[in-house]
Design brief:
203 residues, mainly alpha, two-stranded antiparallel sheet
């Protein structure tokens, strides 16, 4: 009597059996998803390094320090700082040069003034994420991670927004989208986001 295996086998193209216990093949989309996940982190790290490098280069020469201080302290320079931070924060997920410009400006101008202006600009720019989540135009996949974040936002929304605004990170946009999606009051969102971002830029 012949004994046959009770384990089912799958047929692949050409009629050859395939062991169902074998590991699934790695698709080309997996490295692409990993790259998209780490891309904002890499860009943020590059911009932070650039900010320190440029700040060191400027601080090494008193003439450069005086010239940059004059430019940034002027009304035009402060307006440019505000606009750049608005545009930088309005760009969902991908940070722009405002992240590098603000620390540089704080090294040559009044840190309090720079922090207030940059924080106000960043808060205004972050409204894009909040409004996208509120209106439903920016849909996030309801996977397990997003569901946990949504639950936490409903329970500890103000604290989460404040902490993420206080700590430099590329994930605040996601928090803004979820805050809008969970209908956090706009005044509360602006208050806690501005408080965290102003303190971050002053520190």
């Amino acid at each position: 009597m012949s004994v046959t295996s009770s384990r089912p086998t799958a047929m692949v193209a050409g009629g050859a059996p395939q062991d169902p216990s074998a590991d699934p093949p790695v698709t080309r989309s997996e490295p692409r998803r990993a790259w998209k996940r780490w891309f904002p982190v890499i860009i943020t790290a590059i911009l932070v390094i650039m900010a320190f490098a440029i700040g060191t280069w400027v601080a090494a020469d008193p003439v450069r320090v005086a010239e940059v201080r004059r430019l940034i302290s002027s009304p035009e320079g402060l307006l440019a700082l505000f606009v750049i931070n608005v545009v930088s924060s309005a760009t969902l997920i991908l940070p722009l040069p405002g992240l590098a410009l603000t620390p540089l400006a704080a090294t040559v101008a009044d840190p309090l003034v720079v922090g207030l202006i940059a924080g106000a600009g960043q808060t205004l720019g972050e409204l894009t994420g909040y409004l996208a989540g509120y209106s439903g135009r920016k849909a996030l996949g309801m996977d397990a991670r997003t569901q946990r974040m949504t639950t936490l936002m409903r329970r500890w929304g103000a604290a989460i927004v404040f902490v993420l605004a206080l700590i430099p990170n590329p994930f605040f946009d996601v928090a803004g989208i979820i805050a809008g999606g969970t209908r956090m009051p706009l005044r509360l969102y602006l208050l806690v986001a501005a408080s965290g971002k102003i303190l971050k830029n002053i520190a």
